[in-house]
Amino acid sequence: MKGSWTSRVAAVLFFIAILSSPYWLYRYFNKKPVQTIKQVSSQVILLTPAGAAVHDAYPTWDNIVCNSVGEKRLRIGMRKEMVEAAWGRPRTIVWRSDARAEGVASEILSTKEEEWIMDDGPNPRRAIFRNFMGHNAPDNTAKLIYFQDSISFRVPR
């Protein structure tokens, strides 16, 4: 008697799976593309007038980056061309390398840093990029990890 009950349950589950398979096939093949956070933010964040001018020049950049570049502000994670569009070309470039392994692995595990110094003076504007992909990676993978805007204070007399 016990065997007949389990076989009935198995048969019912089998028929449920067979009858519901067209639904799952329809659902699998008619997927709607999922929007990424970057796409949604570009639809929600409106462009400022300065950001619209930047977006016309660089249509692949999202609205947040275009607004920042239009206002000459930097954001962590920007690429070199974004920083150059916001602040201009650097006056001085300093390259550093950090090897954390020896031999062949040093080419893969080491990082490259590039510091852009924009101005002269005691407190210059600086931007530091790091390429985490190793020395053989292309330069366009470097991301902004630190920046310092020049700060000048007026002392009241």
Q: What gyration radius follows from the Cα positions, in whole Å?
A: 27 Å
The main sheet comes to: 4 strands, antiparallel
Order of helices and strands: HHHHHEHEEE
> Care to count the β-strands?
4
Helix coverage percent: 40-55%
Q: What structural category do the secondary elements indicate?
A: alpha+beta
Amino-to-carboxy terminus distance: 101 Å
**Low-confidence spans:** none
Q: How is this structure best described in words?
A:
With 157 residues, the protein is of the alpha+beta class. The N and C termini lie far apart (101 Å). Helix content is 42%, strand content 17%. The model has no long low-confidence stretch (mean pLDDT 77). The longest helix is centred in the first third of the chain and has 28 residues. The chain folds into two domains: 38 residues, no CATH class; 77 residues, no CATH class. A four-stranded antiparallel beta sheet has the order 1-2-3-4, with no helix packed on it. The chain is elongated.
